[in-house]
Amino acid sequence: MNFLISDIKQYQTIIQKILKYDDGPNVIALVGDLGSGKTTFTKEIAKYLGVNQNVISPTFIIHREYLTSDIKKTLHHLDLYRLDHNFELDEIGLRNLVNARNVIVIEWADKFPKYIKSLEKIKSVQITWVNLEYIDEDTRRFSI
Amino acid sequence: MKILAIDTSCDDTSVAISEDLRILANVSWSKFKTHNDFGGVIPTEAKRQHKEFLDPVIAEALKVSKLSIEDIDAIAVTYGPGLAIALEAGIEKAKELSKKYNKKLIGVNHMIGHIYSSLAQDESGKSYSGISISDIKFPLLALTISGGHTDLYFMENHMEFKRLGGTIDDAVGEAYDKVGRMIGLGFPAGYKLETLAKDGDLNAYDFPRPMANSGDLNWSFSGLKTAVLYQIKKLQNVYESKPDKKEFRMNDASMNLSEKEISDLAASFQEAALESLLMKLRKAISQYSPKMLVIGGGVIANQALRNKLEKLCDISKTKLVYPIPMWLCTDNASMIAIAANFYAKNNLYIKDIDSLDRIPGLEIS
Fold it and tell me: Which chain B residue lies closest to A65 (C-alpha atoms)?
């Protein structure tokens, strides 16, 4: 699927589609350069999930978590920019986050394609790769 | 009171020994600081370093202070915010020392450490930043600015913090690092960007001051970072994304920019970032009429920011306080030791040693 997004409201429609299956954990693997809108997109996911807190950049501490309006669902926001090896993903406990009906948003997921593919073995998991591309100042291309 | 303080919140293994507000020793190990291609610290490398070097760094700090561990009254350690696996190493060691030598344990919030860093004194009792404890007048505003934080607090007493606002996305130091990467400066970029900005025209590009009219005391730096990216793309005349993502990382974005363009970008970005900071500080000062403005965190090493703050505080007759030596601005265990004094005064010791756990996203409350 390809979308051209020029209005922030359109994010909600896409997010609804991505998070439709919520019997298990939802992994959203984000791919896109600085300025492509990864943070904005994650903020919209948080809004969709009824997160009350402000979603701020996870770059510094790599992983932040947020309570959603659904008690069985935690939003995990990860930034893999500073990581280089698979074992580091083990150390930060990525695999353990992928459970229940959690939503796990992973920025710079393209650094670890194999590892993220290996998460497919987890029961009822739904992995969605989202490419964000800068088209111009007001437009982003979404490929899912 | 003699305190041995440990900070392993990020990539420095830092240990300090203090007696009251006097720093008797401050030893940091960051020789093995390893940065990857993408900029930033490799967390597991930091953890390995902390584990390996904590013991020798502690031994060296004790040696410098001419004290033995038996002389110490309390062990203080950073328990957040920071990298989970890095924090863990320091906490583990602090618990071990606390149990083995039967010392009181104090868990310190790293950001409270930054706020109190200006009070550090040298061995003879002379303040490094020209500020003594009797100079502290409440109410005051405290601003923390670093690679991970941009937060503003109102204080009416020691150790009482009311959060007034903060960044809603990237920290100001993070914006410096990310923009630095865009214009090809590597990591960390803060100091290099500031140096480049001196040669640039701060009005060359009209970057936004995000949240200027938001009415609150929050900041946003993500949009500014993106505005710099747009400007770079315009300069490069690249309006489409490169097809091969692997080839196109932001550190390549500076390609085809002239030296003048790069320094103009640096100067214009810095002006926008600092003016954003100042705008909300101005607003907060007029709203809260504080007696002092206290700054802590790595970004206060920036001279352009210091100049702007001096002016602001001159005009508003607010006393400005910030850590002067570079090592007190960046992460260090001395500030943890200083803050620990105030934890101790408020009897904020860890009652059950085993209960102390790292909190990577710890906030001040």
Answer: B361
Picking from B334, B300, B315, the residue whose alpha carbon sits closest to that of residue B120 is B334
Superfamily for the A2-143 domain: P-loop containing nucleotide triphosphate hydrolases (3.40.50.300)
Q: What is the spatial distance between Cα B116 and Cα B322, in angstroms, rounded to a whole number? A: 9
| Residue B240 pLDDT | 46
User: What is residue B224's DSSP assignment?
Assistant: H
What strand order describes the sheet that includes B140-145? B160-166, B150-157, B140-145, B292-296, B319-321
The crossing angle, in degrees rounded to 10, of helices A10-18 and A38-48 is 70
Quote the minimal CA–CA distance from A122 to chain B in Å: 24
Residues of A in contact with B83 (CB under 8 A): 61-62
> What part of B 254-293 touches A (C-beta under 8 Å)?
none
User: For residue range A119-137, what is the model confidence (pLDDT) as tens digits?
Assistant: 999 989 999 999 988 777 7
The minimum CA-CA distance between B44 and chain A, rounded to whole Å, is: 6
The region of weakest confidence among B89-93, B95-99, B203-207, B361-365 is: B361-365
Residues of A in contact with B361 (CB under 8 A): 61, 64-65
The helix/strand/coil state of B66 is: coil
Q: Which CATH architecture has domain B2-129+326-355?
A: 2-Layer Sandwich (3.30)
Q: Does B148 carry a binding-site annotation?
A: yes
pLDDT of the residue at B256: 77
Residues of A in contact with B147 (CB under 8 A): 60
pTM: 0.89
DSSP class of residue B346 equals T
Q: Which CATH architecture has domain B140-321?
A: 2-Layer Sandwich (3.30)
ipTM for the complex shown:
0.83
> Residues A97, A60, B151, B312: what is their CA dihedral angle, to the nearest 10 degrees?
-170
Q: In this predicted structure, what is the pLDDT of residue B181?
A: 86
